[in-house]
Amino acid sequence: MTTPVSSRREGDILIITVDNPPVNALSHAVRSGVCDALKDVGDAKAVVLNCAGRTWFAGADITEFGKPPMSPSLPDMIAALEDCPVPVIAAIHGTALGGGMETALGCDFRVFNAKAKCGFPEVDLGIFPGAGGTQRTPRLSGLGPAMEMCVTGKPIGATEAAKFGLADSIATEDVLASAIEFAKSIHEKRRVRDLPNPEADEKASETWRKFAATRRRGEAAPLKAIEAVEASVTLDIDPGLEKERDLFMGLITGQQSAAMRHLFFAERMAAKVDGLDASPQKVTQVGVVGAGTMGGGIAMAFANAGVPVTIFDANVEALKSGLARIAKLYADSAAKGRMSEAERDARIARISPAGGYDGFAGCDLVIEAVFERMDVKKAVFAELEKACRADAILATNTSYLDVDAIAASIGDPSRVLGMHFFSPANVMRLLEIVRGAKTSGEALATALAVSKAIKKVGVVSGVCHGFIGNRMLKGYGREAGLLMMEGAAPEAIDQALYDFGMPMGPMAMGDMAGLDIGYDNRKSLVAGEDYEPLASALQDRLVEMGRKGQKTGAGVYLYERGSRTPVPDTQVTAMTEALAKEHGITRREIGADEIVERCILALVNEGAMLLGEGIAQRGSDIDVVYANGYGFPRWRGGPMFHADSLGLEHVLQRVRAYAAGPHGKWWTPAPLLAQLASEGGRLSAWSKP
Predict the structure, then answer these.
(1) How far, in Å, CA of 244 to CA of 135, rounded?
(2) Which residue from 54, 81, 387, 471 lies 20 to 30 Å from 41 (Cα-Cα)?
(3) What Å distances lie between residue 417 and 462, 480, 573, CA to CA?
(4) H or E segment to which residue 449 belongs
């Protein structure tokens, strides 16, 4: 068996090289190899720790997650680096992330390639660096930078690393050659563990606690990371490492980390479609029909990834307005320092207007993003069929409509599928890829490849009204609407679900999206069969009064001019009470627990229905959809994982209890939920046989 670690001498310098593609993960074999190589220092004056390939250690070996630890552990390897009798220099290129950065801190000095980055992304897995990162980093950088790296999880570049004292030298060319030269100039060790304790920094602690409370609301890991970093002020290194380890173990064995690790693997699994063996087409030019908010966002998503885009809108003024809005968004980003002016200009230049459908003749993929009406969509596809190459893939951005019906409107339905972006499309990570009954394997493979290329998380759905996300959302909104009729104030409903971890409550969300969207959508549905009319009775009245939400200054809530802050409205309270009386509903006090349970279990039961019907391939795909498209708290793992954590027997019992209630027709337990509850199975781990 080939070892991933080798060593060689270059004069007085011992060079240890790790070659463990693709990202030099710190596997057991790597850790063992490094420890063994350090035993053979001999008469070398210094050691350079180097990584082959495209990156330095980019983190732990994810295949070891959840398995019993094997010796030597990462802390053991770092201790071996520190105990080496001669100076050890890290030659860092690519990314030094997580355990990779902790390994670098175990070295005496760090030479960075000018383009290298380092960071501690562990917070996104519900943990923090647990192999000395919270104790060694602040001894070099001070508390503020250490907290920033641990709490945000965002990597920093070589220049910033040098500013923080984490990089001792920056190489503009060959980092290994520079590290060897640096090593020749070093004559004494300088272990980070031997540096003085950092000074207390109350301002930094306050700043990052506020950040954690708002930007990472509900998560335990950021606050524990701050506590660990603060311990470096008063504790010597070994007690500090013990404190760090105790806090780390409390997190990694907890529910939040389990939930976030579940999503980490689920997002990678979502790209795998059983039975799909087709190769994707090459996409070098994309077309977008519609220059509204969604169409413009889609165009930007491709332009950001370096793909040229042709955009067309039948309304000439709308096209001009859309292009101006895109240019302004890029200009604002450049003004805030998020991109250079040259990059701003390059992205704007990638988006070209077309005067008609014939402008799509050279496109490999065309995505329509026009008004959500079947007749409008079919008319667009008729034009695309005439204008586009026979092998071009045609995608609809519909949120609800029947993709098979759209596909059937042209001669070759195999080239049609859904690509449901979420607004703003240039920001939101989720892309629902809707596989029609006749969608070809090549078209599906292409959509998945495109999703990855534009840095989206693609999840495949079958065809049904609303696909995965919006079909499930219907039950969530239904229960919110019924709860309001039964006595819960809109602000109480929103607060309960916000406290659960959602970014905003369903009433505020409806106002933000526009109440008229749901109103128009219900026109094509059958009341009492497709939806519960009582749940949307208030919203329907509001729309008919011209109260469509934030855009009109009033919806369920009132909005002051220029403000997005919802203000409760006594007129809405009176209207709700009148509607309840009209429908014979006796209003009552409703607590936050019932609000959360009804809304969230409605999601869960509908998700189980989707799985049983084969609309979603696996339970984890549903969790990916909700974590990335609907703001379901990542630290709860998604609705399916959350249901598993509650216990499926308990979930089934509560669903049956609601099924026996006044609106029980909507609560028929999903057969798969009942099956898994009896078998001791898990919704989040279930996949289509």
Answers:
(1) 8
(2) 54
(3) 10, 32, 43
(4) helix 441-453
What is the rounded distance in angstroms from the CA atom of residue 186 to the CA atom of residue 184? 6
Q: For residue 556, which phi and psi values (nearest 5 degrees)?
A: -65, -35
- Arithmetic mean of pLDDT, 155-182: 96
The SS3 call for residue 451 is helix
Tell me if 622 sits within 8 A of 640, measured CB to CB. Answer: yes
Average pLDDT, the chain: 96
Beta strand pairing call for 393-396 and 416-421:
parallel
**Which among 321, 331, 333 is positioned nearest to 296, based on CA atoms?**
321
SS3 content of the chain, % helix, strand, coil (to 5): 50, 10, 35
Q: What is the CA 184 to chain-centroid distance, rounded? A: 44
The CATH architecture annotation of domain 286-461 reads: 3-Layer(aba) Sandwich (3.40)
State whether CATH 3.30.930.10 applies to domain 469-587. no
Side-by-side strand order, sheet with 95-97 = 95-97, 117-119, 156-157
d(CA 357, CA 345): 26
Per-residue pLDDT tens digits for 577-624: 999 999 999 999 999 999 999 999 999 999 999 999 999 999 999 999
pLDDT confidence band for 688 (50 / 70 / 90): confident
Bin 467: left if φ > 0, else alpha if -120 < ψ < 50, else beta: left
Residues forming a β-bridge with 7: 16
Q: Is the pLDDT assigned to residue 250 strictly greater than 60?
A: yes
Q: Which two tokens stand for residue 11?
A: 């004069």
pLDDT at 662 over 60: yes
β-pairing, 416-421 vs 430-434, is antiparallel
Other beta carbons within 10 angstroms of residue 107's beta carbon come to 26
What dihedral angle (degrees, nearest 10) is formed by the CA atoms of 293, 368, 274, 429? -10
Least confident piece of the model among 52-61, 98-107, 436-445: 52-61
Instruction: State how far the Cα of 113 lies from the Cα of 171, in Å rounded to an integer.
Output: 5
DSSP sequence for 224-274: HHHHHHHHHHHS-HHHHHHHHHHHHHHHHTSHHHHHHHHHHHHHHHTT--T
* DSSP secondary structure letter of residue 596: H
Choosing among 1.10.1040.50, 3.20.20.70, 1.10.3720.10, 3.40.718.10, the CATH entry for 593-679 is: 1.10.1040.50
Angle between helices 255-269 and 237-252 (to 10 degrees): 70
Second-level CATH architecture of 5-253 = Alpha-Beta Complex (3.90)
Per-residue pLDDT at 1: 54
The domain limits of the chain are 5-253, 286-461, 469-587, 593-679
Domains 286-461 and 593-679 equal at CATH topology level: no
Average pLDDT of span 495-501: 98
Kindly tell me the burial class for residue 231, based on how many C-beta atoms sit within 10 Å of its own C-beta (0-12, 13-18, 19 or more): buried
- 61 or 253, greater pLDDT: 253
